[in-house]
Amino acid sequence: MDEPGHMKHCAAAISFGSVMHERHAPARNRFAYRIFTLRLPLSQLNSLQVAGLGINRRGLFSFYERDHGARDGSPLLPWIREQLRSQGLAEICDGEVVLQTLPRLFGYVFNPVSFWFCHDRAGQLRAVLAEVSNTFGGHHNYLVAHPDGAVIQADDVLQARKLLHVSPFFPVRGEYVFRFQSRVQHDFVAIDYYDNGVRMLSTRMGGQRIPLSARSLFAAWLRCPMLTFGVIARIHWQALRLLLKRVPFLGAHLKPAEQVE
């Protein structure tokens, strides 16, 4: 018998697809590249066994709890439950939490953004925590949900005020607009950054979801052999392109921000 659709949404998987960034102002700049991410149900993390993937241990690919949440190596599920409780979302987010993120490759990782998809017991999406990191060592968590706690449907608009410096070419102001789509075999996230009502940057992440296994992990690696190394290399290459286009460089603002908005 096939699993119900909402159970497949919460199964361990690889999401293989692409990321696109398009800067609209003050100079246009667009690029896209292949990528894959892991989708890890946190309630199954301790029992997950996939050859080639180390959970809190070394491997060709690895996932460490210290890379997320409190970043002290403590279990992630109690941490996200506390974040939800503090925002009054614990009762409706009483189902599986799936963390979608880049794994470490040969021990190295840089995650521009990881997503914590928080479901109710029926498997419906109720809240999403976007865990954003910059290249200066800063982190901030944007927790978004409908004010009335309604189920997050495809293309519903969720907003958060920008609080973390990410690009040295944009100021720390304005807001992010998030949209999420999650089907049994496909994921899609759209993030638009607005400053004073003007769309400055668009980011799109989409991927085909396949069950996580040693075979699927190795196949994804063959298609994205650089993965996390490629992510950081592309960030710096695009920064050079912007400098050559004479986009004003604002520098790094390292003022700490509160963990969750």
From TrEMBL:
Q: Which PANTHER family match?
A: OS07G0153300 PROTEIN
In Swiss-Prot or TrEMBL terms, this protein is called: DUF1365 domain-containing protein
Q: Name one Pfam family in it.
A: DUF1365
Which InterPro entries does this chain map to?
A: DUF1365 (IPR010775)
- Which species is the source of this protein? Uliginosibacterium sediminicola
